[in-house]
Amino acid sequence: MMESGKPVDVIINAASQEKAGLIVLGSRGLGRLKRTFTSTSVSDHVLHRAHCPVVICRNGDTPDTASPSTVASHGSNNSL
Q1: Among the residues of the chain, which ranges form H helices?
Q2: What are the residue boundaries of the structural domains of the chain, listed by start?
Q3: Of 9, 11, 15, 33, which residue is the least packed, with the fewest Cβ within 10 Å?
Q4: Coil, helix or strand at residue 21
Q5: Does position 80 have pLDDT exceeding 50, yes or no?
């Protein structure tokens, strides 16, 4: 499926249309201060707008090595 538009909107709409139970995104690992001034963090925007849980993995993390400090979840009643 090929979509065009703002990445956040495309991801949220695709997850909604597919009735996704989870969204997994990568992160470039920008610091909080840099994100504040650039406001380009797609993963942060998806995390706060998604209607299902979202997992954000930093660059270099794998599911086996991701620690709780590198994983964020929103929209789920289940704990990680």
Answers
A1: 7-17, 32-38, 42-49
A2: 7-70
A3: 33
A4: coil
A5: no
Tokens of 2: 């090929």
Tell me the C-alpha distance between 40 and 42, whole Å: 6
Q: Which residue has the tokens 């991801």?
A: 11
Residue with the larger pLDDT of the pair 77 and 46: 46
Q: Locate tokens 């979509």: which residue?
A: 3
Structural tokens at position 31? 């610091």
Q: Which residues contact 25 (CB under 8 A, 6 or more apart)?
A: 11, 42, 43, 46, 54, 55, 56, 57
* Residue 47, pLDDT above cutoff 80: yes
Give the separation between CA 70 and CA 55, rounded to whole angstroms: 9
